[in-house]
Amino acid sequence: MQEHQISFRVRYGETDQMGVVYHGNYPEYMEMGRVEWLRALGISYREMEENGCMLPVISLSVQYKKPAVYDDLITVVTRLKNIPTVRIQFEYEIRSEKGEILALAETDLAFLDTSTRKPMRCPAYLMEKLKQE
């Protein structure tokens, strides 16, 4: 499963004084996309952490194309960029209900052992799920 989509409405509290989604909310939208991408694979982020693996973001880039506003229905498309190693990379498209691209983004996350906080390889159970797709 290389791609997953999640749609939701922009909440009023996510907008700024200009009535558009505050730029700092887009990383949260990307997190929602990643978590649901994993869930669609049959893996919960909570279970990953309970099994000793966490995924901190080590790099984030966003290109803002058009504003989203309160009550817009937006879709976050999350794609795995390549096969994970000690890192996992995602690409995102945030689209309007009309399909217009509102933002393009990429994140780079590291697999870390929760007890040592040191880098580790992608867990075998995640690699297995990816091979099944």
From TrEMBL:
It comes from the Bacteria. It holds the Pfam family 4HBT_2. GO terms for molecular function: fatty acyl-CoA hydrolase activity. Keywords: Hydrolase. Belongs to the 4-hydroxybenzoyl-CoA thioesterase family. This is Predicted thioesterase.
